[in-house]
């Protein structure tokens, strides 16, 4: 559900509320995001977006643990600063906290494991579209400096950036209702205030960022290997036994890697990802039976129970809501 205001061509604002992770990911239209719900319960997400010129601000609110994977568009600097971040959180394998910058643009692609309680304010600079040579130069300088996915700040420095983002968001919203002839100058001021403010607080950050501890990096690599195999039903792991044999790792090693990197055990993680795939297929038109079997759920009554526990509704309800219910073999009513 979207409510978009009519704004000048250089200024846009929107508010989006999502009832599933796929719609939430699509609210970042140019990022090519993929969201996977990891924790049980009915998902609720929202995004408040405001943009002017080469600057875009987004405040995203999620109520479930989500694995976010994607790519920031070329020549863009994208930084997140948490407003609320409670629980196990990782950015490209690095442990993250509320008082840290999340630099989504530091690698060609990123993976962000957000916790149960997650409200993050993102600022995105399209460097080539900034309003002046000065702000384009500042953007390039900041882009070159932010080389790590997680930049730890002091609580005071983190709060300073939060306040800058709140002020910028409020200014854009106010200007939306009262566009003046000084709009271009105000746009340049917004860019300068944010760029200088962020550059100031990260100025002491080392040019060559520290690496994750070897064990933490190794644990994240194990999770990434598993995640890659889970994207295809032909290679999707169905059990811990398969993981152990295919990865040639002990059950204890895999258990520790997932608990350390993701904050959950591997069996729950495998089931969560497979249930997400089923939900996607139901939304795309497959029947409940087809989607369940495709992702390795052979005991349909147990599958229906797991699906309802995870998403808060039966799989048939998902299929019907998206208009894809098909005539199926008669199964018990709890499907």
UniProtKB/TrEMBL annotation:
- Please report the stretch or stretches of sequence annotated as the HTH araC/xylS-type domain: 220-321
What InterPro entries does the annotation carry? AraC_XylS_family_regulators, Homeodomain-like_sf, HTH_AraC, HTH_AraC-typ_CS
User: Where in the sequence is the signal peptide annotated?
Assistant: none
Tell me the superkingdom of the source: Bacteria
Q: Which UniProt keywords apply?
A: DNA-binding, Transcription, Transcription regulation
Q: State what protein this is by name.
A: Helix-turn-helix domain-containing protein
């Amino acid at each position: 559900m979207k409510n978009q205001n009519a704004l000048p061509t250089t200024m846009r604002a929107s508010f989006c509320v999502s009832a599933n992770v796929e719609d939430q990911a699509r609210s970042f239209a140019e990022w090519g995001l993929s969201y996977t719900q990891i924790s049980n319960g009915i998902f609720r997400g929202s995004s408040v977006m405001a943009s002017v010129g080469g600057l875009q601000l987004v405040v995203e609110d999620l109520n479930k643990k989500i694995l976010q994977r994607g790519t920031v568009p070329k020549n863009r600097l994208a930084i997140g600063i948490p407003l609320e971040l409670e629980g196990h959180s990782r950015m490209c394998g690095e442990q993250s906290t509320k008082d840290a910058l999340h630099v989504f643009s530091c690698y060609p692609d990123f993976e962000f494991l957000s916790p149960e309680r997650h409200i993050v304010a993102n600022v995105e600079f399209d460097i080539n579209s900034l309003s002046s040579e000065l702000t384009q130069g500042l953007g390039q300088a900041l882009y070159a400096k932010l080389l790590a996915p997680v930049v730890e700040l002091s609580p005071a420095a983190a709060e300073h950036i939060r306040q800058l983002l709140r002020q910028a968001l409020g200014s854009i919203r106010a200007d939306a209702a009262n566009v003046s002839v000084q709009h271009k100058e105000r746009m340049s001021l917004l860019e300068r205030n944010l760029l200088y403010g962020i550059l100031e607080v990260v100025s002491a950050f080392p040019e060559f960022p520290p690496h994750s501890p070897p064990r933490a990096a190794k644990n994240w690599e194990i999770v990434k290997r598993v995640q890659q195999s889970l994207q295809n039903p032909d290679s999707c792991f169905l059990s811990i036994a398969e993981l152990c044999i295919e990865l040639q790792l002990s059950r204890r090693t895999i258990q520790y890697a997932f608990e350390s990197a993701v904050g959950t055990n591997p069996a729950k993680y495998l089931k969560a990802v497979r249930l997400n795939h089923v939900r996607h297929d139901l939304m795309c038109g497959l029947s409940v039976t087809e989607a369940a079997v495709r992702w390795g759920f052979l005991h349909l009554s147990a599958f229906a129970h797991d699906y309802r526990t995870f998403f808060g509704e039966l799989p048939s309800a998902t299929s019907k809501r998206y208009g894809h219910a098909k005539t199926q073999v008669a199964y018990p009513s709890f499907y």
